[in-house]
UniProtKB/TrEMBL annotation:
It comes from Streptomyces virginiae (Streptomyces cinnamonensis). This is Rieske 2Fe-2S domain-containing protein. It comes from the Bacteria. Residues 1-59 form the Rieske domain. Keywords: 2Fe-2S, Iron, Iron-sulfur, Metal-binding.
Length: 121
């Protein structure tokens, strides 16, 4: 699935799970927009000084940027990214049964630390 890396429709929702394109330490990747700990808005995360982890804005839980980079295979071309999302239904806690298997696009603002340099978010 292909979607913009910034601006309108920068988030793709697959089977109830939201994904965004983020840049950390000059390296771009597609990541789950929810914190794996308690579902906080990871797309609004801060980044540790060493750029090794993202910091959830809800409770300061740190998540490995390297692990997130490896979860979703993706290729960026210009202002769009094409990603291969998991072929599994969303967890019941994240999506009601009626949205499983559906895809949509929406806008999710990114923290300044995750937005690509010069992006209009």
């Amino acid at each position: 699935m292909s979607f913009p890396v910034a601006g309108r429709e920068n988030c793709v929702v697959v089977s109830g799970t939201a994904y965004v394109y983020a840049t950390v330490d000059g390296r771009g990747f597609v990541m789950n927009a929810q914190c794996p700990h308690r579902g906080g808005p990871l797309h609004l995360a801060g980044v540790t000084p060493d750029a090794g982890r993202l910091i959830c804005p809800w409770h300061d839980r740190k998540t490995s940027a390297a692990r997130l980079r490896n979860e979703i295979p993706a290729v960026r071309t210009g202002n769009r990214v094409t990603a291969v999302f998991p072929d599994r239904p969303a967890r019941a806690a994240t999506a009601p049964a009626d949205v499983c298997g559906r895809t949509s696009r929406e806008y999710r603002p990114l923290s300044a630390e995750l937005a690509r340099p010069g992006a209009a978010v």
